[in-house]
Amino acid sequence: MRKIIRIIKKLKTLRLNRTYTKFYEKLKINQNIVLGQSYAGSNFSGNVYYLIEEIYKKNKNLKIFIGANKKEYKKIKRYVRKNVNSQFHVLKIGSKKYLKVLASAKYLINNVAFPTYFIKKNGQKYLNTWHGTPLKGLGRSIKDAPYESGNYQRNFLLSDYLLYPNDYTFERMRKDYMIEEFFCGKYILNGYPRNDILCYNEQREKMRKKYGMEDKEIIVYMPTWRRSKTNALQDNQLLEFLEFIDLHLQCNQVLYVKLHNLVKDTIDFSNFQHIKPYIESLETYLFLSLSDALITDYSSVMFDYMNTNKKIILFPYDYEEYMNDRSVYFDLHTLPFPFCMKKEDVLIELSNLNHFPSYEKEKRIFCSYDHKGSTEELVSLFLDDQTDHMNIMDGSLFSHGIQGKKVLIYSGALKTGLLTYNLMNYLNKYQDDQNYYFLNFYNHKVKSSKNLLNVLPRNISYITFQGPKDVLYKEWISYQLYYRFGIYNHWIGSNINSLFLREEKRLFPNMKFDIVIQYIGTNITFLHLYAIQDAKKYIFIHTKNIQSKKVARAYHLLLKQYDQVFVNHDSMKKILHDQYETEAKLYFDEQEKFMETFSYILDEK
């Protein structure tokens, strides 16, 4: 039964990718369409919300579409219609209409990433704002999952504009998602659109009166969802905290709670006197602008909220446990916020909301570009290319500018063994040379090798592949005819070639390498992708015999496109000569000989 379910899911995914690819190839760009998507379609809020509102205000002729995931589609559609703008159209991610809009919209805005099948067409404009100043590690700094950066990295490299609210985030994001060498768009250092209203909300008192908040101290509690804990455990810990606080809050205090989607429906707020659920008709940052204090733990909202000059209380009650499997960029204790490990400590801080340390030093670090008006400035840039009063930098200026070569290496699953040992030993020994190395692999293949990724030298980056191929039906048929049945003609070859040329755009956006090395020379996808690179191309074959008909057919089709083939067995050298008319060079697995071979490749003119 499980096998049948997996097959059905795979067929569904293939159908979705084929549908998107058809629209990508056939549809022209519609100059009047805007597609916005926030938090993978789980809500409509934050930077994307405020940008979309400003875009519509500036040009009502533009047609606005909002991407929503399957689970939250009906809720987001109802929310947008009732509370935002009935003229906006909410689309279910993966639906036929969504795929059409994604493939043809002139303007694309996201604060996370579009799906793995997305490729930006020439003429589309893509702004990625991300969604916060990071405390926890990102990209290669995610200790427990450094291999999951691929689709984010890919989306960043596809973008025309990347927005950062401070220099700290700018440095961390571009380094840990390893985009410095290839990003050719514009970096924007400017305020987050969602923070405009925290800097100044001219409607604050009027809105507080509308929602019965006048003469009240409004506290917002926004805890982070604990991925490592069961929902039941989180519910119990949360309920215990809320029951205690409710008993001890002052009569003029109200605590509003905004919870993660996975736990929010399990709390019955009718049992509380001073505690209420977050008002869902209000966008999150608009609601925050009405408050007098914030309680959180590890969320980036703490950095944004400093713009209000209101009290921030940290309640990371499980600090050691939470941080055990996570990397962080700095110690939470260094921030100037009251650090409460016990609920009683939180209550003490709530007794005087006007007493808290100054944030001025930290605001210069984390809120340095936030100001009222940043949304209008960003929209003027995005729609009309107006750059007044903005700090905009060409992405190409931030490459390392090294004199050596950019080297792409398909490294396989990085499993323990001689092949991985030899490769990593070489890279570690020569990590200070003038070359810049990029390992390449499927994200799901290296889960067991995460410890190795965590200790890679910083001059060794990696490119992670995610998602099935973008393929037209005729290309899929051609691929099957050749690789399954050995049938080949010009039409089949042309279709297979067009498939991988498109995959190159999807998987290597705006990337140009000097040398590509197919180090594990039996993966058909990587054989194709490396063969079509405009670079010096090398392939290693580590077996005595060709293991499968599919690999044999790939060698027949592709080996002659490589500049040099290396084998470590005389028998394979003979097979390649006799059956493939390809001359191979012998190399040996002994460490010293392996070093010589790699040095030969990198030194060759």
Q: What does the model show?
A:
With 605 residues, the chain is an alpha/beta fold. The protein folds into 3 domains: 221 residues, Rossmann fold, CATH 3.40.50; 154 residues, Rossmann fold (3-Layer(aba) Sandwich), CATH 3.40.50.12580; 154 residues, Rossmann fold (3-Layer(aba) Sandwich). It is built from 23 helices and 20 strands. It has an 8-stranded mixed sheet with strand order 3-2-1-4-5-6-7-13, sandwiched between helices. Strands 16-15-14-17-18-19-20 form a 7-stranded parallel sheet. Helix 1 runs parallel beside helix 4.
What gap, in angstroms, lies between the N and C termini?
56 Å
Number of H- or I-type helical stretches: 23
Whole-number total of structural domains: 3
Give the low-pLDDT segments.
none
**What is the architecture of the largest domain at the second tier of CATH?**
3-Layer(aba) Sandwich
What is this structure, in a nutshell?
The chain is α/β, with parallel strands linked by helices. 39% of the residues lie in helices and 16% in strands.
Tell me the layout of helices and strands.
Blueprint: H1 2-26, E1 30-37, H2 46-58, E2 63-68, H3 73-84, E3 89-92, H4 96-104, E4 105-110, E5 125-128, H5 150-158, E6 161-164, H6 167-176, E7 186-189, H7 196-199, H8 204-210, E8 217-222, H9 231-248, E9 253-257, E10 275-277, H10 284-288, E11 293-296, H11 301-305, E12 311-314, H12 319-323, H13 343-350, H14 360-366, H15 374-384, E13 391-394, E14 406-410, H16 418-429, E15 436-442, H17 450-454, E16 460-465, H18 473-485, H19 490-507, E17 515-518, H20 524-531, E18 536-541, H21 549-558, E19 564-567, H22 570-580, E20 584-586, H23 591-603
Parallel strand pairs: 1-2, 1-4, 2-3, 4-5, 5-6, 6-7, 8-9, 8-11, 9-10, 11-12, 14-15, 14-17, 15-16, 17-18, 18-19, 19-20
Antiparallel strand pairs: 7-13
